[in-house]
TrEMBL record:
One of its GO terms (biological process) is methylation. Residues 59-154 form the Methyltransferase domain. GO terms for molecular function: methyltransferase activity. This is Methyltransferase domain-containing protein. Coiled coil: none annotated. It comes from Paenibacillus lutrae. Keywords: Methyltransferase, Transferase. SUPFAM superfamilies: S-adenosyl-L-methionine-dependent methyltransferases. It comes from the Bacteria.
Length: 266
């Protein structure tokens, strides 16, 4: 299948699940973002952005979901934010959050492979967070577009799940025997195909729109970033889980669970 077949199906799946996420979200984000300095970001990535500097920076986030992380960055001091996501429903929620909070954020409903040229060379910081890369069938095309959004010397920040976790079965999967037992190939090239829902907030299952996700090796991520014209300046692996689905593996304290990659546009 071509890219559009994958991304359009995923668009429908995310439109389907976001009302479920809203129902199970333990935080009233509309109220929370009216507080000065409120943030949904964890301590690690907050410290990372503060070290890089947020003041006066224009920030973009690709696959921004309902905008909570981008709004957090602006609430922590960024000049403005622009978020892009394929889901109509999450973008509507993000726009409502921006309006009620008064934070200078703009949200664009688009396939990230179709971001228009008005955004070229516009941003000082580009953020990609947990759960974004797995939905992307072509990393080289994605990072090629991402690189064009950055100004010269602009910074890319990725805070993602470690690809090693894609080798492990979830507790409710038939392949599961032990938290650390390898069940799948690290080099899996065909997509994961699912239709039991993507409710990682309430952990419910339902008969859902078929959705497609993809395993990417660290090498494929690094090469796609480098070949886009972004130089990797930092890479760090972490023992903590940011996916909300691998806490049973984190308890083993034996594998890298997440990573931070920072790059600079040459």
């Amino acid at each position: 299948m071509n890219i559009k077949t994958y991304t359009q199906s995923n668009r429908e799946a995310w439109n389907e699940v976001n009302p479920i996420h809203q129902k199970h979200n333990p935080i009233n984000l509309k109220e929370a973002f009216q507080a000065i300095g409120f943030s949904t970001l964890d301590e690690h990535i907050t410290d990372t952005f503060r070290r890089l500097g947020l003041q006066g920076k224009r920030v973009a986030q690709l696959c921004c979901n309902n905008g909570r992380e981008l709004l957090s960055l602006v609430n922590l001091g960024a000049q403005s934010g622009t978020g892009f996501d394929i889901s109509d429903h999450v973008i509507e929620e993000a726009k409502e959050l921006a309006e009620t909070s008064g934070l200078p954020c703009t949200f664009v409903r688009t396939d990230v492979y179709d971001i228009d040229s008005t955004h070229i060379n516009q941003y000082d910081l580009l953020y990609i967070s947990i759960g974004a890369l797995t939905w992307l069938p072509d990393l080289h095309k994605f990072f090629g577009i991402a690189s064009t959004l950055l100004k010269k010397d602009g910074m890319l920040v990725i805070y993602e799940m470690h690809p090693l976790l894609n080798m492990l079965a979830m507790e409710d999967e038939p392949e599961f025997e032990d938290p650390l037992k390898i069940a799948f190939s690290y080099f899996k090239s065909d997509p994961w195909i699912a239709n039991t829902g993507i409710d990682y907030v309430g952990n419910t299952t339902y008969e859902s729109q078929t959705n497609y996700s993809f395993s990417h090796t660290l090498a494929s991520i690094f090469n796609a970033v480098i070949q886009s014209g972004i130089n990797i300046t930092e890479y760090e692996e972490h023992p903590h889980d940011i996916s909300c689905i691998y806490d049973h593996v984190e308890k083993e304290e034996k594998l890298p669970m997440s990573y931070t990659l920072i790059g600079k546009k040459s």
